[in-house]
Write a structure and sequence with these properties.
This protein has 286 residues and is of the alpha/beta class. It is built from 13 helices and 8 strands. Helix 6 (133-146) links the parallel strand 4 and strand 5 (153-158). The chain starts with a helix and ends with a helix.
């Protein structure tokens, strides 16, 4: 099964000795581009999904069905192992089980479930808050229980370092790694002293998001047990800027043939499988 081979490839990253930076992808073509550039894996974030599907900021307005649908399109259209940000699992622990079922069926290789209180409750005034450790651990246990393919990677994600401090972060790491998850996904680690303390407390491979510049050295990250480290989601922003600049130039009268930064048809044909379709048309349509 093609999903299983990709999942095994993603697990090999966690079991290895290096730290990889995933390609931030948002649709099948962006995933194929990442694959052509030999990225080890792709990352489909909740914030990117909100942009690509709704055109909205990341305020947890996207539904599970919308997110899983786009994840499926990416998995169907490419061969790269895909890690996805499943936010808070779209509800309580039972919703988390459903989330894992849907994303596993969509073909993802790994997913993270976080302990942030989402959507933000009335009166929070924009301040992030976490659910209790007990509720967070319950969600992680539910995620593991919802998994049917044992090769699917489940990561327990927490922003405790930034929200509640190091002591709570370590407590949550200890609680979550006892639930059967495969990795710990830490958000907001900025300093070497923080990462080294967290690495000593970790009994599982680490993933990082929102990491500080001080620690963004692949060799150093690898030595601390970090196997996946995000670097932001610049590709989708760059893509939208290119669309804006091209439309603006056309609107202002630039002839199509004089546009800057537009690839020729042969470049795009490689990512839309033109040669394969020509062969299929010849073989199957006569």
């Amino acid at each position: 099964m093609r999903w299983e081979s990709r999942r095994k490839g993603f697990r090999a990253i966690l079991e290895g000795q290096s730290c990889v930076h995933p390609a931030s992808v948002f649709d099948p073509v962006s995933a194929r581009i990442a694959e052509s550039l030999e990225f080890e894996c792709g990352m489909f974030a909740g914030s990117v999904a909100s942009l690509a599907v709704l055109g909205d900021p990341d305020h947890i307005l996207l539904t599970l069905s919308e997110f899983a649908g786009q994840a499926y399109r990416i998995c169907r259209g490419s061969k790269i192992p895909l890690l996805v940000d499943a936010d808070h699992g779209y509800g309580n622990a039972l919703n988390v089980m459903r989330t894992v079922e849907e994303l596993e069926t969509a073909g993802v290789s790994g997913l993270s479930i976080e302990d942030t209180e989402l959507p933000r409750p009335f009166g929070s005034r924009g301040r992030a808050a976490l659910v209790s450790l007990e509720e967070g651990a319950g969600k992680m246990r539910a995620a593991v229980a919802g998994r049917q393919d044992g090769s699917l990677v489940i990561a327990a994600r927490t922003s405790a370092v930034a929200v509640n401090g190091m002591k709570d972060a370590v407590n949550r790491m200890h609680a979550y790694q006892d639930t059967g998850v495969d990795a710990l996904f830490l958000i907001g680690v900025k300093q070497k002293a923080e990462l080294e303390a967290l690495a000593r407390a970790a009994g599982l491979p680490l993933m990082l998001g929102g990491a500080g510049a001080e620690i963004m050295d692949p060799g150093y990250l690898a030595s601390c047990g970090v196997r996946v480290c995000l670097r932001g989601h610049q590709p989708v922003l760059a893509a939208y800027l290119a669309v804006h600049e091209t439309m603006k130039a056309l609107r202002e009268g630039t002839p199509p043939g004089a546009l800057a930064g537009v690839p020729d048809k042969s470049w795009m044909a490689g990512f839309t499988r033109e040669e394969a379709f020509a062969r299929w048309i010849r073989d199957y349509l006569g």
